Amino acid sequence: MDQMAVMDTLRDCVTLLQLVKQARDLQSQKKRLWVRPWLKRRSDKSVYNNLVQELSLEDHDSFKFFHRVNQDQFLELLSLVEPLISKQDTRMRKVVTSHEQLSVTLRHLATGESKQSLGYAYWISPNLLSRIIPEVCEALYQMLHTSHLKLPQTEDEWRRVQADYNNEWQFPNCMGALDGKRVLIGKPAKSGSIYYDYKSNFSVIMLALVDAKYKFLYADVGGAGRASDGGVWDKCTLNRAVQGNVIGIPPPSTLPYSNIVCPSVLVGDDAFPLRMNLMKPYPGKNLTPERMNFNYRLSRARRTSENAFGILSAKFRIFKQPIITSPKNISKIILATVVLHNYLRSKTPDEYRIEEQRGQQHQTGNAGQPEDAGAMRGLARIPRNADNDAKAVREQFMAYFNNEGRVDWQERMAPLH
């Protein structure tokens, strides 16, 4: 009996081992499933191969609204990025074409639609979209930034920027409006409190310089949310370039119709320090009429940066909600939208009028203070000490704006004494 019991036990063990092996084989077969069967019908069923094709033939306005670029621009962008994103078919599956990759990426930037939702529309797995979107964004930035995100490097280039600011916004010697934003993100995995900011959000910091026509001259992205707002400019590469004067900044020059000599300056808000080459408003409420006039003139010049951010978030609505991806990919997404913004400003400036109006809604009219919306938040206003030379430059601009540089509309808006 004992021997028979042992044999029965051995048979049971063998049967159990066979069942375990069968389960493992079945699991291995499932893992070897390269693509879900319904995804194989992408060429017949996806939104790109149906709706987008119909829009390209019958409704050009809807095609542009769908992608935020018209058909000619879509094809031009495709010709630029295709060498970097095209793949080859394999025996296991057909690749997602370059056309589909660009389309789904532009749709993601235009709407902020989740990868799961886009996957069902384009018949592409969310995991694959998680690779496609960052790759296309990186390719767009790589191919466009040399021509559409170029910081001036010579005195002549800077003087053209200054002339635009003087003509459009009546602020001479201005090299651009500086602004910073916190872009809200989903909590990155295993990041601890690195991206946790003082307003209890997870964010990355974007710093930008904008010209008089709402185009970005410089963008720096990637500062972790826990970083102090006060230290963003101090650690910025643009600050070091300005301080070291390695970008061909023009020397001090005489302001128009006066004998006042002032340096070339950037304009910013209270989040930035007052420096000889960086002007900010006079602080406080009980200001003299002359200082109020200076603050207004500086606000007019600085609002170009607020409007540029407003136009950017109106055009690319991915900024209307926290962006859910890794911080590395978020930087690629933001930089891609910046170069696309400049590309569209260059190609079709007249078509930005509606977005300009939306962007200007970010202004409250109170000394240019922004009304934050969506996933873009302004940097905190931080009191700082300034050296006497910087204060003297601000006093010179104030004197100019209240005398030789006073303009007709300023007479009507001047506060009563």
Automatic annotation (TrEMBL):
Co-factor requirement: a divalent metal cation
Taxonomy, superkingdom: Eukaryota
Keywords, comma-separated and alphabetical: Hydrolase, Metal-binding, Nuclease, Nucleus
GO cellular component: nucleus
Principal localisation: nucleus
Residue ranges that the Swiss-Prot or TrEMBL entry lists as coiled coil: none
A GO MF label: metal ion binding
Listed name of the protein: DDE Tnp4 domain-containing protein
